[in-house]
Amino acid sequence: MVVVDESKGDGVVKRGRPGAEGVKLFKEEQYAEAILEFTKYLETSLDDTEKKVAHYNRGMAHHYLGQHSEALEDGEHCVKIDPFWAKGYKCKGLALEGMKKPRDAIDTLLNGQKMTVDVDKNASKILDKLIRRLNKETGYLDGDLDMLDRINNEKYCVVCNLFEKDVKDPGKDQSKKFLSCERCEMVHYCSLGHLEENTSTHKEVCRQLLKLWKQSKQIIQVHLLWKDKDDDVIFLMAQQIKGPMGKKIQMMMNGVAGTGDLKKQMDDLKGCGEGDLIPIQGIRNFAPVSTKEQEGLKTWEDWFSLPDNKENWAQMDSVKMMMSRMCPDSDVGDLTKDVKDALTGALTDPMTVFYAMKQAGLLTNLGNKVVRLHVVGAEPHVEIMKIKAFFALLTSIIGPNLRIILIGPLLKSPPVPEADPVITSFGGTYQEFLQSGDYKKPDCIVAFFPGIYDPTYNWLPTVAHAIVKDIPFLVTCTYEEDYVKTKEWLVTGSGMKPEIVLDCLNPFASLGICQKPAGSNVIHSRNKFYLLVKGGQLGSVGDLLEVVDDLEKAADDNMVNVIAAMAKMQLASIQEDSMKDLMKLKKIGML
To answer: What sign does the CA torsion over 526, 531, 534, 540 have?
Structure first.
């Protein structure tokens, strides 16, 4: 029997409301009729909670009829309305599975897990089983998912991976008495010997983990809420206050909100997350940065210190003082620091692009020149959601003549392409985009922590195109192992010889961090490292393409002979699909 949301669940359908008929039809498995009813219901005046559940119900009806593109659209509406609601990700995941994209479905569900686990109490029940089933079918995720669950929820030794619950009697077996780091309490050991063995490794991250632990204990948590692209606000900064004090302050805010901007912000926050969210500030735009100020932008503190940003921090200090007086016995944290962490997480992408292009000398003497960016591997729930902020911040620094194309298999191409749009998208891989009629040579190709070493995705044609056409290719990484593997792939694993002109820690990485996996010594920070490739040689890949040219001339270029040539040249690591794409791009002059 299909389960749908009724009045006891999310509150969308109340007796006598037009949506009730849709639920009735859904339960009777009359899905086409249910879709019509839910569509009528969505045309009425609804609040966000009612909208998201109606979209979910309609999306599930589309799913059961095999209308997976329509189901995906409804799922995307759910996530846009409330990014902290697990059922929206479930709807998207099932739609992607129906579209024969199980790996994309798993990625979507994992992102949903990350977004909802601390907010939606039903998140694990809704998403975990689906992730397990899809992974069992695809083998996409390495490792045992039961083990990953245990790692995220139980105490284990970071040295030998022994779980505390697996020690039968730690009281008797003193050699297996679990210990935690006395300072941060976020890394654990099964014995004093393992604690001592891990001391030098853990010491490097202990201070950062202590910061995370302290933040988790604060009664105030800072949230960032992305707004729709048609809203005049780009995103809202809000604070969640735990306990009864949160409800009191929210009631007080509602009482003084009136009908102005504060009232709109309070309304925007309804239904977004669990608890009591109170607006701090709505970000509408970013003030233009002068050439002199641009030259001085070398760290986040330089950006925070710009005249139009400075006044915000005094306001944050005042709010913190007020909260400290209202909650004298609680840790309210450092509001200014927490807001900066959230802001940098939202704005690291455009600032990273600006800084890397500036360091490589790509922004000198721009004048009225149009700057073109191709963001490859873009995803709806990340880059699409943030594109308004990305464009607004970057144009405030480098000027208005910016053109951005977001490219990724999960995106949608516009039904009627414009001649030279300011922002647009292409639904497909970069190699498919290169073969379309929409390509204009960019000033930079950007990939945000793509894991280009992962053979699941085919990055070879993108990097080869960038090398041959001398287009700067910017790639970022979130943690040290990711960086090491990315650089290793570029230098040796790709079979090419790219010229790496920039290779460093990113001063505009997100200041917000996370421990992943839980209990480990691994710290993630969005865009922590970046590498910029400009030019170079195709190396062994180029040699192979010459061999393919010779095979073509001899009318002997079927894939069996190409693969034999790859093996002879010890290039068996290059996937057959990559080679096919390279051959296509060479034929159309893109290599």
So the answer is: negative
